[in-house]
Specification:
By secondary structure, this protein is mostly helical. The protein has two helices and three strands, in the order αββαβ.
Length: about 110
């Protein structure tokens, strides 16, 4: 093919395509920045929720009155709410449902 037979590039069309490409690129860059910021916010929330969950797990099986002892089950109602020490201070009634406490059993969670 001779050089005089080569098609002439359509410069206005090339410029228009380049402008559109630049606009698309800028739009994508903005979207990436927004996603990065959203990801950072979600990571912060995840850390906060993980910390909160760890705190809840630490206290999950502790007495709801003194927060220091392991729980026991109150019978016959079956509530696992307070420790044996605190159960002796509630005048024989479950602090959760107010039913009479007939027996107290230690809880062993495996």
């Amino acid at each position: 093919m001779k050089t005089d037979e080569l098609p002439m590039p359509n410069l206005p069309e090339i410029r228009r395509e380049r402008r559109e490409s630049d606009i698309d690129r800028r739009h994508l860059i903005r979207e990436i920045d927004q996603l990065r910021r959203a990801n950072i916010e979600l990571a912060k929330k995840n850390v906060a929720l993980t910390t909160e969950n760890e705190d809840l797990e630490k206290n999950r099986f502790k007495c709801n009155t003194c927060f220091s002892q392991k729980l026991c089950v109150l019978l016959p109602c079956g509530h696992v709410y307070i420790c044996e020490t605190c159960s002796n201070k509630v005048n024989g009634k479950c602090p959760y449902c107010r039913s009479n406490i007939e027996a107290i059993k230690n809880v062993f969670i495996v």
